[in-house]
Amino acid sequence: MSRVERVEFSVPVVFGWQRAGHSGHFYKTRETGKVQEIVAEAFKKALPEGAELPLFGGNVPVIMTVDTYRPLPVSRPKRVLSEPDTFKPDFDNIEKLIADALTGLAYEDDKQVVDCHTIKHPRVRDRAARTDVTVCRGWDGSSRAEVDGNDNKEETR
Description:
By secondary structure, the protein is of the alpha+beta class. 25% of the residues lie in helices and 27% in strands.
């Protein structure tokens, strides 16, 4: 079986981690849990047959990219064709929801995510909401260690 290096999938929703709390204790909301299940199922469907989970075990570094697309609200004037998505959810809450949803599936723990890029694309009229996610094996550090090793070597005389 060949090693899986990259998985790409989409979910038909843009949603960020929401916290609810009482008495100083925080927990995730029911809606957050539902969206995490949608993300987990979409990831599983995108996997090649026979892939073992977690996909990237141990201390394998992982890179994640997240692209969100949302429609303009119908309340916007017809002359407005697009606008920056500067509205909630915050980009970091989108990342957190997806990273937590993929724990145990894409990787053992989301601490393995060493690089994450999230882009909230402009809201455009008549566009369906969706989130595209790519998870891939990260750099192994060997080339960086060689560069750092060369830079940090003391000269011997």
